[in-house]
């Protein structure tokens, strides 16, 4: 086939009805066409060895695609897990802050209770001293 003939067969060149047409399956060698058809089961291969090779190639292709899908889904799951971990860390931080705030509030309440108890003790002590002075004054 000449250069012009092959150009015409592939959809381009001089004398071609459609210059803008891209390469088509007509440009592929014959064995590629047979292999492609055999992969899809439309044309039987000449020998059982070739048929087995095509089956193995098809199975390998399917397994490769499956592996790629699983790798993508695993990557997505890992991203989601990382997000969950970050969220969990943020929640734990907030819980720690709340615990610290609660502990500070409890400390303040304890201080107030102690101050109130001390105040009541002082009042009781003052009342006792006042009674004692009153009784001392009464005896005089």
What does this protein look like?
By secondary structure, this protein is an all-alpha fold. It is built from three helices and no strands. The longest helix has 92 residues, at 48-139. The N and C termini lie far apart (146 Å).
Gross geometry: rod-shaped
Quote the distance from N terminus to C terminus: 146 Å
Helix content, binned percent: over 70%
CA gyration radius, whole angstroms: 46 Å
Give the helices and strands as they follow along the chain.
Answer: HHH
* Annotation, overall tally of beta strands: 0
Number of helices: 3
Please identify the structural class as seen in this structure.
mainly alpha
Share of β-strand residues: under 5%
Biased composition (Basic residues): 20-38
Region (Disordered): 1-44, 112-140
């Amino acid at each position: 086939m000449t250069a012009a003939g092959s150009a015409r067969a592939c959809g381009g060149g001089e004398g071609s009805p459609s210059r803008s047409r891209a390469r088509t399956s007509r440009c592929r060698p014959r064995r590629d066409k047979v292999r492609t058809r055999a992969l899809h089961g439309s044309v039987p291969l000449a020998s059982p060895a070739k048929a087995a090779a095509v089956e193995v190639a098809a199975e390998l292709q399917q397994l490769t695609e499956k592996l790629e899908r699983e790798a993508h889904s695993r990557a997505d799951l890992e991203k989601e897990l990382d997000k969950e971990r970050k969220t969990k860390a943020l929640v734990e931080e907030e819980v720690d802050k709340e615990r610290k705030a609660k502990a500070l509030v409890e400390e303040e309440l304890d201080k107030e209770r102690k101050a109130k108890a001390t105040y009541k003790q002082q009042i009781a002590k003052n009342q006792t001293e006042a009674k004692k002075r009153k009784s001392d004054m009464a005896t005089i």
